[in-house]
# Entry
Amino acid sequence: QVQLVESGGGLVQPGGSLRLSCAASGFTFSTYPMSWYRQAPGKERELVASISPAGSNTNYVDSVKGRFTISRDNAKNTVYLQMNSLKPEDTAVYYCRRFSNWGQGTQVTVSS
# Structure
């Protein structure tokens, strides 16, 4: 069965960095686009970034452009989200997604 397991979240000060990881299993990872979403308290889940199967194409929501980088390692079946210059408004639970499959999420809190 498909499994997506996120890790790397935590508490960080404004301006800090975190790298999220999503380890995938149960499908041929290298043939699927992957995405990161986030959901802040009281808000709808939103798409943050997506990456094509080979990693050659990426897309970002405007609010994270220039600060976040999505990447993947198809040999390790893992997709990453490097988050720099974090802001309090980036606080949310971050989810990895492949089509209808979601991970359990990892909490990111940006606060001084």
